[in-house]
Specification:
The N and C termini lie far apart (43 Å). The protein is an alpha+beta fold. The protein has helices at residues 3-19, 30-38, 42-55, 85-93, 119-133, 176-184, 192-200, 204-217, 249-257, 287-300; strands at 58-65, 72-78, 98-104, 110-116, 138-140, 142-148, 220-227, 236-242, 262-268, 278-284, 308-319. The longest helix is centred in the N-terminal third of the chain and has 17 residues, at 3-19. The strands form two sheets. Strands 5-2-4-3-11-8-10-9-6 form a nine-stranded antiparallel β-sheet. Helix 2 (30-38) crosses helix 3 and helix 7 (192-200) packs across helix 8.
Amino acid sequence: MTGRDVTSLHRLNERLLNEGQRGFPLVERPFQALAERFGSTEAEILRTCADELARGAISRIGGVWAPGVGGAALLCAMAVPPERLEAVAALVSAHAGVNHNYEREHQLNLWFVITGTGAESLDEALATIEAETGLPVIRLKMVRPYRIDLGFDLHRPAKGGSAIQRRPPRVDAADYALAGLVEAGVPLVPEPFAEWARGLGCSTADVLARIQAWLDAGTLRRFGLVVRHHEVGFGANAMTVFDIDDARVDAFGERLATQPGITLCYRRERAEGWRYNLYCMVHGRSRDETLALLQAAIDGAGLTGQPRQTLFSRRRFKQTGARYFRCAT
């Protein structure tokens, strides 16, 4: 391969990773549509997607659901003796419903998200985790999302967004089979939606229309490449938690959600021994960059001086897609 070919391939990978996170073509041959956009070929786009999946830069090509549109989810935390951390993390990660599992800088050092088709399945899984580890699990239920946006622009500085103002419609039970495919990701074949349609016993047009309707309603936040932030250069992330008066937390949350660099922002229930009710996430290419973005966001939202803690991640034990519509088997 010539130097020019290597350079062209590198540019294709960058464009695909950056621009493909949103607006994935909802057409019969989406990879051909991407090829036309990027001046490539369908075969090359398919190979590039396969390569990025293999190296872990993307976890899938599919949909990102808005909170509360189906299934159930909980953020959980555990205080694990350091000498047991890896073993306990492995037990937690072994549960299919656990999609994110991180070590963070705190006495509560293991944080994970568990998702499932309903609250009962989560309760059963968490009871099993407590029995397996002999340690309590703190459950932190979401009360209100203010911002959910884990798209990463690889070139431009962090920019502000808008706060979520309304809850989108839930997924109808009749559409759960398609929803499960959307969250699992499209197959890397020339006509992936036709493959879904054959399995569902409907037309490709029906599949595409339903996905578009979910996007239009906000039920799906986006449809496209789901990148893994570490692998695309965002090596630092910090979860900051605030203790805000319940009567003021929504106002602060809405302001915080609009600040540049904020990727996640939401209100959660307090727990025994854990007084915090407002959460945000910031991802950066370094610890210093992340701290600078965080401080600017805190100042911009008027949260300076409010009680808070910042928990940087140390190790990522697991990062996969949520399972709201697929049984965690």
